[in-house]
Design goal:
By secondary structure, the protein is mostly helical. The chain contains 3 helices and no strands. It starts with a helix and ends in a 7-residue tail after the last helix. Belongs to the complex I LYR family.
Length: 77
């Protein structure tokens, strides 16, 4: 894996962990953290550049989903 891609993957991993820690519910939080860690471990030895790029795009989409889900509800008066 090229150094630029490796740093992009590590950055994505850290952002996903950070956002997953923001879930208010303990069960959702631990589930999200476990899923992120397991997915990155399962694909850690992947060498194919196309597959890595596809997984990075998928990870970015998942990160966007996590960010939408952890946004606190706005209470209006």
């Amino acid at each position: 894996m090229a150094a630029a891609v490796r740093s992009q993957v590590i950055s994505l991993y850290r952002m996903m962990l950070t956002e997953s820690k923001k879930f208010p519910s303990y069960n959702y939080r631990t589930y999200a953290l476990r899923r992120v860690r397991d997915a990155f471990r399962a694909n850690g030895a992947l060498e194919d550049p196309r597959a890595v790029e596809r997984l990075v795009v998928e990870g970015q989409q998942t990160l966007a989903l996590i960010k939408r889900q952890v946004i606190p509800a706005v209470v209006s008066d």
